[in-house]
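I hope you will forgive my troubling you with a question about protein structure. The matter concerns a single protein, recorded as an amino acid sequence and a row of backbone structure tokens. Please examine both parts with care and let me know of anything in them that strikes you as inconsistent. Thank you for your consideration; the sequence and its tokens are set out here:
***
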Amino acid sequence: MREVLRSLVARSAKRTVRRGWDGAKARAVALGERRSDQRDGRDERLIEQNRRLREQNSRFKDQNRKLHSTLGSAGPPAYNADGLAVWGKDVTFLRDPSFIRAYRRGMDSGHSIGREKDSDADIHVEWRVHVACWAGWHARHLPGHFVECGVNTGIFSLAVCDHIDFNATGKDFFLFDTFEGIPEEQMAVEEKDLGLEANRVAYDECYELARRNFAPFPRARLVRGQVPETLGTVTIDEVCYLSIDMNIAEPELAAIEWFWDRLVSGAPVLLDDYGWSVHALQRKRMDEFASSRGVSIANLPTGQGLLLKP
């Protein structure tokens, strides 16, 4: 009896092992088939993705060929300077005798920006000057006075004075500047490399030169010193034009905060550095200010920012 039982147990164990082995093989086969299906699915998706990428690349190449063809047929750009190139745009202002005269007045002010000291080279900022002259022409019809913070020798403000015949406006033009460069102590850490280099190559003591430049405009008032300390040293009740170009964020923010409530409705505010990538901190501060006042700043292709006081 004992031998019979051992035989039965042995046969049962063999059947169990065989069933387990057969089940394992079946599962392995099924798993292999699933993995094969998954691989096939992934391969199909990759093939489809590659096909779409090839089609997209072909479209880009076609668009690029068309763009080059269009630009080639258009000839050279109508204007190509100061980081701005345009095709097919009206630039007749560049040939306007009154603009040419005003532009030369600013360009010949004796500055050292973008050129060697004592050079008379044109640094070609015509479109920026054009925007400033437009803003000045608009502002001359508003009540209030003109203000520029960041003057140097007067590249922009002299052009504006000439273009709009400032002496005929009956207004004052308040010109705030150190007239010796950017104050290092006002520079943020991320502004120091650019600011110190600008002081080294572009800015010199220029107060007497600026004073002579503005002598033909008796109501142009030079205010020397750092902003914001100098802002309260003169009385300005209303402002119809505000230009800010001090190259660093701290005094620029102080200036727009000081003058905001003094700006009349419709007054243009021109921010010379706003759209330049190297002046990101200034743009950030100005955007925060504009948002707090419920206004927005237009980012012009010249690199300037422009807003109108509501």
Remarks:
- Residues 1-10 have pLDDT under 50 and may be disordered.
- The longest helix spans residues 2-74.
